[in-house]
Amino acid sequence: MMNEKNKDNNESREKLIGCAKKEFLEKGFAKASLRKIAADAGMTTGAVYFFFKDKDGLLGGVISEALDSLMKLLDKHFAEDTESDLSVYQQQDGDHDEFAEELVNVIYDNFDEMTILLDRSAGSKYGGIVEQIIAKLDYTYITMAERYAAVMPGKHANKVMLHWLTHVQVDAFIHMMNHFTDRQEAMRFIKPVMDYLIKGWITYALEDDT
Amino acid sequence: MMNEKNKDNNESREKLIGCAKKEFLEKGFAKASLRKIAADAGMTTGAVYFFFKDKDGLLGGVISEALDSLMKLLDKHFAEDTESDLSVYQQQDGDHDEFAEELVNVIYDNFDEMTILLDRSAGSKYGGIVEQIIAKLDYTYITMAERYAAVMPGKHANKVMLHWLTHVQVDAFIHMMNHFTDRQEAMRFIKPVMDYLIKGWITYALEDDT
Amino acid sequence: MMNEKNKDNNESREKLIGCAKKEFLEKGFAKASLRKIAADAGMTTGAVYFFFKDKDGLLGGVISEALDSLMKLLDKHFAEDTESDLSVYQQQDGDHDEFAEELVNVIYDNFDEMTILLDRSAGSKYGGIVEQIIAKLDYTYITMAERYAAVMPGKHANKVMLHWLTHVQVDAFIHMMNHFTDRQEAMRFIKPVMDYLIKGWITYALEDDT
Amino acid sequence: MMNEKNKDNNESREKLIGCAKKEFLEKGFAKASLRKIAADAGMTTGAVYFFFKDKDGLLGGVISEALDSLMKLLDKHFAEDTESDLSVYQQQDGDHDEFAEELVNVIYDNFDEMTILLDRSAGSKYGGIVEQIIAKLDYTYITMAERYAAVMPGKHANKVMLHWLTHVQVDAFIHMMNHFTDRQEAMRFIKPVMDYLIKGWITYALEDDT
DNA sequence: TATGAATGAGATTTCATTCAT
DNA sequence: CATGAATGAAATCTCATTCAT
Prior knowledge:
Arc Repressor Mutant, subunit A, homotetramer, 2 strands
């Protein structure tokens, strides 16, 4: 009994995906050459268009599963989070460790694909993914900060700092991918980083009204 | 008596540089079209090759001065710094404010050029500039940390965190350029960021030997 | 006992033909995509080549019956006609009405196929069908006019005008197909058109010798 | 003293236009190959893009002057016409002769270009030109007929026949181009055609109210 | 000092067709 | 009976670069 995803036991398609992965990783989507990918796979460019709609489609073939699992995790976590407020940061360290751990796992389960998706997809239809993720986190964090500010007279959310901290957070994961191939090293790296970020949120999330 | 800046008092050259600046800013080096640049300047592509060696050369024409002044500032500061040790971070806050201020000034004196250089030069021979700067700072910070660690038994420099913090610092300036056109706003943004980074260095620069 | 029409009672073949009809109608033969046709029919391109020799063959499958009945009608009428002479035009209005009516019926019995055949087959081996029909009518009309001229001293057939009128006649039917989906409306349109054409033949079929 | 249009005494551009003219004439715009055109002109495809924006632009280079003079004539004539009413058809035969003559002259002054424009431009941005012309004439003729009908109780414009007659008229000119290379022969052909059409308008422009 | 012309190598994409299975 | 895979040749277009003048 075979599920739908594994139905395509197609060798050439997989080879194409493999070569595409390599090329995208090396040169990034925009500078990657379909010709080269096809040639590396021992086929003609036309063959690519049998298996995929176009260049974007090929990229999709490479990263779509990785994208799905990433988004699923993000949605899960940030749905939970929005219901809480910033004060949780001070209490529940474990939560963040847990999330970071899950995220690292998801990333390292599909290391190359995630790297392509988050760091080499410029020029493709997935090019804006990092900005999207940042926007999603941004919204969550700002909402939380505002809820927290509501009970702190004379304070309001410091959107500028929050936005930057979000950037730093997301970039930290990309940094991690670019510096550590090993999952355990990555874990060891990301934990103090998250601690540091939490301190940042606590310190800079709110500013005095003026 | 001709000063350095007016060495090239050529009108067409300047116009070409002006139009290139616009195009590079908009599309980034790789996607910028020489044809369009030349056309915007009221010339043909050939003209570009009279004034500049090639596309990289044109980019050089646009950003070289900015690059020089940036590097001069960096060299100056990081030459001084290397002679000190990490303990200065705790004492001389003013120093960092001063440096950040100088850096912001240098950047905002040549805002467009710096933006191109640091954020839109991918694909050119300046493409690695950010990495280079990071490497330079990295070396300085690690040296400082190691000197500091030398007098702290049971501790050594935490290269991984230092490297990441350097990344964050450099990215913070790029973030600043992408979010604030106004110099004063930029100043207001960068100061707490630097404070936060200093806390980071103090906290994470050293780790226990294991 | 199987009649001719059900000779190919193949389901897939019929489905292919149906989808091809749609695609040819929409885009014309040249721009029609075999891939799309096959996909619409729930098959792959290869299947097309099982049932048909090539793209032309598929078009044949779509329009051959329509072509046959059209040609049969044309042959029948223009075989009869050649034996008469132009004088019939003045006497037997009914004949033309009758022919036009039969033609409209044949066309509207296979509306889509006729439209493809006569108006969307450019690029295929049937691309010249309209020219062929015109040539056939042309021959008939000129023959008739010459026979008529034989008894009219100082006159000869005006081939140029006859040829043009033939064009107008054929185009009128195509015009009809492109403007009227309804058989009755088509009838109402084509009758005055035929009247007008007959006046044209009477007036311009012969010219003075010079 | 050289006017702007003749400033480009460019040999290659003209050669490219010449070869394009030939190819468009033979195969029509859609099936014409830029490669072949360039090769025939002894250049590479890239050269085409130096002189023209794209394939449409090349077609523009071939037919734009012809198009201008055609449109100018049409505008001139149909601006005049709209002010008159259908009754003029019965009186001023000369007018139509004059118009037809002018039109034939304009067409035969740029024979190849007009043929391409009106009969081989399908697939290009000029592809709808014949429809546009028909629409323009249609509007004029229907307006005229309606004005005429206003003074004829129990009558109204027969839009269906008028539209068809417009088609026939426009097609007649295209027919002319496809059958007569010689301007005088074309003239001799088009005159009785116009007479015939005028009779058609008179007879069928109005129909009884029902 | 610059133009204008052209190259050449590359890009992505489309498509009818073939053929082993 | 039909698929699935792949070809190969074509298409349009973009671009940095060169060079004679």
